Amino acid sequence: MPASFRSPDRQRGFTLLEMLVAAFIMAIVAGLGWRGLDSVARSRDDAAQRMQAGTQLQLAMQQMRDDLAQASDGGRLLPAVSLAGNGDLLIVRRVGVALGSDLRASAHAPSPLAGALLVVRWGVRDGRLVRWASAPQLTSTGLVQAMQAPSGSPIAMLDGVASMHVLVYRFAGNGLQTQSGAWVNPYTSADAGAGAGANPGNPVLAQWRTPGGLRLNLVMTAPQLHGSIEREFLLENRA
């Protein structure tokens, strides 16, 4: 039998080159699969961050809406809503009732804070929309002092805020004319609601009375909430 003759029944194995090609193909498939999984994970994380940012925005606006709904108008010297010199929003509001409290108890033991008001301040600090709340006050003097500067510990309500701008809605006049009005900058002469009264405790408030509405514009820089966000709030003069 010649030496070059090989039995047809003998099995032939893989060569080194074939093994390398197979390993290379598997590496490519694994890389493509990893990129797909990474893309899915990134999309999931982005969606979670956007949802969290949206929830944070919703809670912040709900808190501001609650502050404005509980606003109390004290006249020219103590308007329910005003702006500080640095653009912070000031709200004089009634003291909230804690959830779960028994309102029937007030008929037998009146709360020492009955009729008390507090000052809430909204402003932008270090890229965040923050909220301050003063201690409850029973006198107008205490309220004016609380309006002059932030008091209490600030609470961060919304991240990624570059600036906050406020417009107010002023009605054109009295009677039937109150059906018309305009959004105006409270710092300009176009604010027809400017009063002649003076406030020695806070001169900024000398030209203020509670507007009929409030338009809030937030300039956002966060990737999840980027651009301008606008909200409008209807106000009423509350004594």
Description:
With 239 residues, the protein is of the alpha+beta class. It has one domain. It contains 2 helices and 9 strands, in the order αββββαβββββ. It has helices spanning 16-69, 140-148, and strands at residues 81-83, 89-94, 117-125, 128-133, 155-159, 161-171, 181-184, 213-221, 226-234. The protein has a 5-stranded antiparallel sheet with strand order 1-2-3-4-5, with helices on both faces. A hairpin with a 4-residue loop joins strand 8 and strand 9 (226-234). The protein is elongated and about 100 Å long. The termini are far apart. The model is unreliable at 99-110 and 189-206 (pLDDT under 50).
Per-chain topology:
Blueprint: H1 16-69, E1 81-83, E2 89-94, E3 117-125, E4 128-133, H2 140-148, E5 155-159, E6 161-171, E7 181-184, E8 213-221, E9 226-234
Antiparallel strand pairs: 1-2, 2-3, 3-4, 4-5, 6-7, 6-8, 8-9
Brief description of this entry?
By secondary structure, this protein is α+β, with helices and mostly antiparallel strands. It has helices at 16-69, 140-148; strands at 81-83, 89-94, 117-125, 128-133, 155-159, 161-171, 181-184, 213-221, 226-234.
